[in-house]
Amino acid sequence: MPKKVPETxxxxxxxxxxxxxxxxxxxxxxxxxxxxxxxxxxTGLSVSDTLxxxxxxxxxxHLLAKGxxxxxxxxxxxxxxxxWAIAPDKNQALLPYxxxxxxxxxxxxxxxxxxxxxxxxxxxxRYFPPxxxxxxxxxxxxxxxxxxxxxxxxxxxxxxxxxxxxxFCNIWGKGMVKIIPILLGVVAxxxxxxxxxxxxxxxxxxxxxxxxxxxxxxxxxxxxxxxxVDKGLLVTSAITIIPISLATIIEHIGxxxxxxxxxxxxxxxxxxxxxxxxxxxxxTTLASLFGAPANTTYGENTGVLALSRVYDPRxxxxxxxLAVLLSFFPKFAALITCMPVATMGGISLVLYGMISAVGVRxxxxxxxxxxxxxxVLIAALILVLxxxxxxxxxxxxxxxxxxxxxxxxxxxLAVASIVxxxxxxxxxxxxxxxxxxxxxxxxxxxxxx
Length: 449
Fold this sequence. Notes:
Shape: globular
Largest sheet: 2 strands, antiparallel
Helix content: 55-70%
Order of helices and strands: HHEHHHHHHHHHHHHEHHHHHEEHH
Number of helices: 21
Structural class: mainly alpha
């Protein structure tokens, strides 16, 4: 019989026996599932491809982090604004261009990881203080808000079911119910929509039981192989999406700090932040090159660690293997694709608002001093540029300029991020020291990725 989990936690799950390890792995898979499959449903990317590279990305992360960090890498919501700026309305022809930009953003992790290793986090992070990252995160949520409203308005009753279930589970839920509110909200709203005749399951009936997770022509490699690449759009995608990585890198640091606190192990020191950043970045680049969403360390799975008190990374790897296995079942992917637009709208209303709220929390918990004119100016310009360009131009073009024969456009979020970083570097009076406020430094952690 497997032993009882001790109060101090389990760092070697083999003591519990293989059956219980498998059950714990299944639990981790369900924890990441709801948010992970929602990203392809919102962007038009492949659900099967997403699951495949969530699993493979997690395994790559564990390899580079020496198998020490019990983290699962699932789809990141932070890049949604980038996908929609480059490939609006789930445009399949433009999605590979967006994926190229996300792949470039993943490489930024690797560059910063090298700088962290060479100079230490304090010297590097002074260029990305909360007065820059906080407003950028706020804008990520706000620029997505109109899409959430548009989707929810397709059927407000179905959307409200999703919202109500998420709120109830977050506030009054216990145990795993509190860990997977997004998944439960999606399921409840989906069931209500199906029972009221608002779902067409034709695609599910026609889908094969077994198949490959992705198609070559939907990857970045397929884009280049076609031979008719729009170079201007490639540059536009990179410049538009790379600045978003500044927020997700801080999110990664916060997640690793949270996992370290949960497991009572200093993963910042061992295996080192440079290793975890490299793992996260390369997992994102690999996924994007094959047409899957960006990856990020998942807070939901950290919650499962705290709930189960089993901190063995082997359990996370079981969940990764299960995600890879599930990716080879197209009928399941079709079930996700049939999800009502209103269901996604209801979930998105909560999700995007929470992203913006986390940006506010980042500013508050880091005690940013708004009596200083430099801080007011930086925050003001980031907010106005990001929101103003988005809704002033519809973000279909943003700020457009030509370099040679290439036409390049910058989204509001890209312009705001660049301006914020430059102003913070130029203006005198920098007072942020990474590590001085532990609570603040770990606050950039999206409640639901």
